[in-house]
Write a structure and sequence with these properties.
This protein is an alpha/beta fold. 40% of the residues lie in helices and 16% in strands. The chain is built from twelve helices and nine strands.
Length: 300
């Protein structure tokens, strides 16, 4: 009987471990299904309301709550190591001072991250490799500024076995992104251009150029509703790529943001409006609330 129980437990742990490792693969396949009704929830800087932003704990929280992707920010240290931090200095988010580029990894590792309230915690600044090892097989990752360092981080993605679960996005046009990397970032990653409708350049021309390579998704940024916006959204939906819209703050989505959904209690005017535009990837600062909303809509 004892041996039977041990065998049963071993099988159970094998199954659950296999599920954890397969979830990222399932999500990676999902991002290439533009007609799927499932909405991928992206947590901006992790679960930063309940843990220090861009900390390992913030990402662990996201994995446990069922988030589909975490957005992380990278910078290089003085000794050319990749760490996770949004700002170019450690001033705001740690108990230290100084530019990341002027500090070694050892110096940064001695610092402690601050909570959202500015309180110094026990959490240290993670490296990119630490984050990749944490999320391997469990969740997708969007590396912000990853296009600037793709050649340097690609070997790390391969080393950690995460090259198929990492989303790389860019503000560059197609010709620029293809010229600035030796590795083919467009095809060797889950690739996503950002179409910024508030820039002077012709957003529709940028979109037309990218359609030749059919990226996994397009992120669209806009301050106001306009005919130009709706024209771009229609083109994306007809192109066979997913549409990504941010609900972080009002200037990214014409006022249909997280605060409208949560603080003002109008989720249909915020997240509902985004869904109505055809978005099936939403980046949010309120991942738990967004997942709850989507579940009620049978979209997550």
């Amino acid at each position: 009987m004892k041996h039977f129980l041990l065998l049963t437990l071993a099988v159970f742990f094998c199954i659950t471990a296999g599920y954890a490792e397969n979830r990222a693969e399932k999500l990676a396949k999902e991002i290439y299904k533009p007609k799927s009704k499932y909405v991928l929830v992206v947590a901006h800087r992790g679960d930063w309301r309940n843990a220090p932003e861009n900390s390992l704990q913030a990402y662990k929280n996201c994995i446990e709550m069922g988030v589909d992707m975490v957005e992380i920010d990278i910078h290089k240290t003085k000794d050319n190591q990749f760490i996770i931090m949004h700002d170019a200095t450690v001033d705001r988010t740690t108990n230290g001072k100084g530019k990341i580029s002027d500090m070694t990894l050892d110096e940064i590792k001695k610092l402690k991250l601050r909570s959202g309230h500015g309180v110094v915690t026990r959490h240290s600044v993670p490296t990119l490799e630490e984050v990749l090892n944490l999320v391997k097989g469990k969740i997708l990752v969007n590396i912000d500024k990853g296009d600037n360092y793709f050649d340097e981080i690609y070997d790390l993605l391969v080393k950690t076995g995460t090259d198929k679960q990492v989303v790389i996005k860019t503000y560059d046009n197609l010709a620029t992104i293809q010229s600035k990397t030796k590795n083919d970032v467009v095809h060797k990653s889950i690739f996503m251009p950002i179409i910024n409708l508030d820039k002077k350049e012709d957003a529709e021309q940028v979109l037309n150029d990218y359609m030749a390579v059919k990226p996994a998704a397009y992120e669209v940024v806009f301050k106001k509703e306009s005919q130009k916006l709706f024209s771009v959204l229609e083109k994306i939906k007809a192109s066979g790529s997913k549409l990504w819209i941010n609900s972080l703050w009002a200037s990214l989505n014409a006022g249909h943001d997280d605060d409208l959904a949560v603080e003002e209690g109008k989720p249909n005017d915020a997240w509902g409006w985004i869904l109505d535009q055809g978005a099936t990837v939403i980046q949010t600062d309120r991942p738990a609330q967004l997942i709850k909303y989507l579940k009620k809509k049978h979209r997550h």
